[in-house]
Design brief:
single chain, 187 residues, 6 helices
């Protein structure tokens, strides 16, 4: 009997592993599709943002700006090309404008992807909630027919009702508003 239980556990484990592998493969495929669908401009912005966020970028800037500053110091016996550092400030400002723009472009795209994933998470959660609600209703009916005392638990009736997401959002907003008002009244 124990050997049969172990085989059943192994079969269930393999089935779960198969589902996990399938899901991982689907997610990887989807990310690759999204990446290949990215237009050239967004890929350029992503590449610049990635480079600007690297230590290589920092080292290059330390070397360039450090050299620029040292060469233009008053006591260094080299020809000065920016003794007041005005050009350095302008170059750094223009570079900062462009880098921040590229970073914002990348962040906007990542925010869109994050919103899509959040929508997917919400849909999956709503589907799971609906399925669980149906299972609770089914199990409660079976328990009633088998005359299980817990079948009359009022909490089960509540759990067996579908939850409307818009009602949950309304309730959250109402609660947040009441908490905000209570805080204002404290002050």
């Amino acid at each position: 009997m124990a050997a049969a239980d172990e085989r059943a556990d192994d079969d269930a484990s393999e089935a779960v592993a198969g589902v996990i592998d399938r899901n991982i493969a689907a997610l990887i495929k989807r990310r690759e599709e999204e990446k290949s669908a990215t237009n050239t401009q967004d890929r350029i912005a992503d590449a610049i943002s990635a480079f600007a966020g690297s230590m290589k970028f920092v080292y290059i800037h330390v070397a360039i700006y450090g050299t620029w500053i040292v060469v233009n110091l008053p006591f260094v016996p080299l020809p000065k090309f920016d003794p007041s550092y005005v050009v350095l400030a302008m170059v750094a400002s223009v570079e900062a404008i462009f880098i921040s723009t590229f970073v914002m472009i990348s962040q906007n795209r990542m925010a869109l992807i994050a919103d899509q994933r959040a929508d997917l998470d919400l849909q999956i959660s709503l589907l799971a909630e609906h399925e669980i609600t149906r299972l609770v209703a089914l199990v409660t009916e079976v328990a009633k027919r088998m005359e299980v005392p817990a079948a009359g638990d009022p909490e089960l009736r509540e759990l067996a009702r579908d939850v409307a997401p818009e009602h949950v959002l309304d309730r959250m907003e109402e609660t947040e508003r009441r908490i905000g008002e209570a805080r204002e009244n404290e002050h």
